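Protein modeling request. Please complete all fields; requests missing the sequence field cannot be processed.
Requester role: graduate student
Desired output: 3D structure, token encoding
Chains: 1
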Amino acid sequence: MTVEERLRRTRGWLWVVVVGLFLSGVTAFPLEIEVRWLLRAVDPFADQLPALVSWIERVHVGLVETGDHHPFMRYGTDWLAFAHLVLAVAFWGPLRDPVRNVWVVQLGMIACAGIIPLALICGPLRQIPWFWTLVDLSFAVGAFPPLWFAYRHIRAIEAQQARLAGPTRSSTSEVSGSTRP
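Delivered output (181 residues):
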């Protein structure tokens, strides 16, 4: 595979992550409205999925009551939304120059891995039902593969560029034992 093809594939995988971060960011602002819509959508399934519908109803009530009595608490989800948007912008570097900015992709993979202990520890502490913890874990499962594929392509690009550049002056002098510049 050529460097150009790998760059195209890398950027494709990174765009999947950027779009996901952007969508999760902008949808974190109007949570009360979205949860109301979600509740209306799942309400016909209340007999088949009573735990899910009950949970979504509880979340909606919590959002409404908190918003009515403590509107400043919504500020926390505003910051959550902002953080997702900032993370999406951070991937502009790897989109422009993946090899130089591979660290952003690595950071994204580390963040995905961090979702797992966060959800498994904090979920029960915050009385989040197990099925919703699985939804939270799906963010790691959804974001890690495109980051991993991008990372593998970036490392292959790096190796191809090194092969095309040939041996560097320092590596040839080390091999020959020379210390002259």
